[in-house]
Description:
Elements: H1 5-12, H2 16-22, H3 31-44, H4 50-57, E1 62-67, H5 74-88, E2 92-97, H6 105-113, E3 118-122, H7 128-136, E4 141-144, E5 155-158, H8 161-174, E6 179-184, H9 190-202, E7 210-215, H10 221-232, E8 239-242, H11 245-257, E9 267-272, E10 286-288, H12 291-307, E11 315-317, E12 321-323
Parallel strand pairs: 1-2, 1-3, 3-4, 4-5, 5-11, 6-7, 6-8, 8-9, 9-10
Antiparallel strand pairs: 10-12
Amino acid sequence: MVVTLKEVAERAGVSRSAVSRTFTDGASVSAKTRAKVEQAAHELGYAPNALASSLTTGRTKLIGLIANNFHNPLILEVFDLFTRGLQDRGLRPLLVNLSDATDPAASLRMLRQYSVDGVIVASSTLPSSFAQAFRTAGLPVVHAFGRCSVAPDVHVVGIDNVAAGRMAAEALIQRTYTRVGFLGGPQTASSTQDRAAGFLGALVDHPAIAVSASYASAYTFDAGRAEMQRLLREPPADAYFCGDDLLAVGALSAIQDAGLTVPGDIGLIGLNDMEMSRWQNIGLATIRQPVADIIDAAIELVVATIEAPGRPPEIRLFPCRVIERSTLRPLPVKTA
């Protein structure tokens, strides 16, 4: 049988409102009363009803987590960190899959039905209009892995994708590749645009290096493999910056199936440093995105905005770094 609040009150010898206050964050209750209630609850095996509590406090402690690329294994890492981070703060996630969605209206209706306290949009490909729609509707929102701007409309936490593209270009320049390519995801995605801009812009001052750019249909293994198969029908570049690790793993598969070697014939560098990239049979050189730091900051910001809805939008960017692995040739040895 379910133990009721009334039974706890009777065991503790206090009023039902005292029990309710004991299990309500921020409510006033004396130390003596709290100790009696907690002891009675422990003896009876009582746990407060979160749904009933939400009727009293006006808060559900639900945070909507929105993503649109469930094909990418990185999203499993992201959701694992998000859900654990929320639960550690006494919050609960409500997952929303927006794969193939282009209009935030449907997700907004669902989030309102569940009366979420806030929203975290976890996507580098969804347009900023998604997060903006939630803010316009009065929901505290943070766009994790979003596009940075000078005057943000919503909180944005992520990386500088332009700087990450430049970092990839420098890695290939330092290794003396003479023909390099950008293999990006969907050309309409802001993350693709910014990573391409940084990569191609960094090569402008290196006219001796031949540069190309191509785009896959999605941030998936199959799309990366298909695009690399197409590129291999032409004279391919010596090395490619793939705008996502999963694209790079797909490209690696196509290169190996063609009887070529990596990095002997073609070098590859990705972006994200997802778990698969670290597997021994892949060993993908990549630009590490500090996913855990981004998620922690996103949760911190959405909680702060729930507490202070008028908080001005801000941008928090975290630095990336190159992870050396076997899909790029080694750096040249410097001679004295």
